[in-house]
Amino acid sequence: MGTGNTFGRTFRISTWGESHGGGVGVTLDGCPPRLPLNRDEIQVDLDRRRPGQSRITTPRNEADSVEILSGITPDDRTTGTPIAMLVRNKDQRSSDYLDNDMKVAYRPSHADATYDAKYGVRAVAGGGRSSARETIGRVAAGAVARKILSLYNGIEVLAYVSKVQDIGSNVNDDTFTMADVDANIVRCPDEAAAELMLARIDEIRKTGNSIGGVVTCVARNVPAGWGSPVFDKLEADLAKACMSIPAAKGFESGDGFEGTLLSGKDHNDEFYIDPVTGATRTRTNRSGGIQGGISNGENIVIHVAFKPTSTIGQAQGTVTRDGQEVELRGKGRHDPCVLPRAVPMVEAMVSLTLVDALMQQVAQCELIPNEAAVLDRPNPMGPTVSREGGPNRELVEAGSLGKVNKDGSVSQRVDEE
Prior knowledge:
Blueprint: E1 6-7, E2 12-17, E3 23-29, H1 39-49, E4 66-70, E5 83-88, H2 95-98, H3 112-119, H4 135-153, E6 156-164, H5 178-181, H6 191-205, E7 213-220, H7 234-243, E8 248-253, H8 264-267, E9 271-273, E10 280-282, E11 290-291, E12 294-295, E13 300-306, E14 315-319, E15 325-329, H9 339-365, E16 403-404, E17 410-411
Antiparallel strand pairs: 1-2, 2-3, 3-5, 4-5, 6-7, 7-13, 8-13, 9-10, 11-12, 14-15, 16-17
Helix pairs in contact: 1-4, 1-9, 4-9, 7-9
């Protein structure tokens, strides 16, 4: 496996293949055995990613039909051994790249120049490994991860286009569904915003230009405790996963940069006890479901910014491989806006990251049952758990947690470096 083509620690994928080669695919290692899984479940996510879906995606005509080569029994059960999946390329047109100036000139802001600088050779046709066609393997493996998460704790990973240029949206992250997302070709559940976004994309598309924006992803029902302190924080792993997607240029967790405009009092997510389950919850979710690099049981919410597609049909200044300044007009079939097809890509990378975190959590922290008395355990956190025996009705002894104020609140002195 080549350097940089493998992702994950325990639940690991290695993608392979090129945009204009014989096909692209993935080898998935670390999948649990006996998982019910069939080809159709994987194909659903690949169909959402494939080209040619609408007028605002590349017109390349690919069915992206997946072939499962190993790791699954004839009666659709995983064996625990590597799962290899292949999608054959059917509609590549290498002449779009080889019979014009794109053969020798670098596309501005594309990976053409940097791949050549690194390797000293590049796959001109289709961009090789830098093509978004590489993400087929991610999405196929992400469908397996999605199945594991759903079976484990009813976890849902759903993404949508939340912004196109300056056109935002208003979506309830607690309630939107995949059907809501896929109800329009922009993949924005806010229908009014979707119409404005579509009009903007069409306007840009007709001029031979491209446009970018933001994809928001929500993971519901993730248990508290996933992720690790310091270098392996959950949002750090999610950031690497999402920033590895082609055209991704920014990442936010929770309120992200907008949180810098608030004071600590306004930004903090206050805790409370759910009166029915007795679990610890937060009244707000500005942290995006992650605190200290570890999930807290609330919705995990991230945002990924995608730049405009590099290859456009307008003339741009560039240079050739031998150092000559030229003008280049992009050829080939490309998305005027990558966002609608980026939605399943983000879902896949988030799902892969979460399954990896799940396996590490079980291996390190859940092998030995916590048999301490209920009062000696941390109170369970999140909407999918409940406290044994219900909410703790015991009164806190005055002064046991610190100074008791006149209003009944408790003051504690905390020294931090």
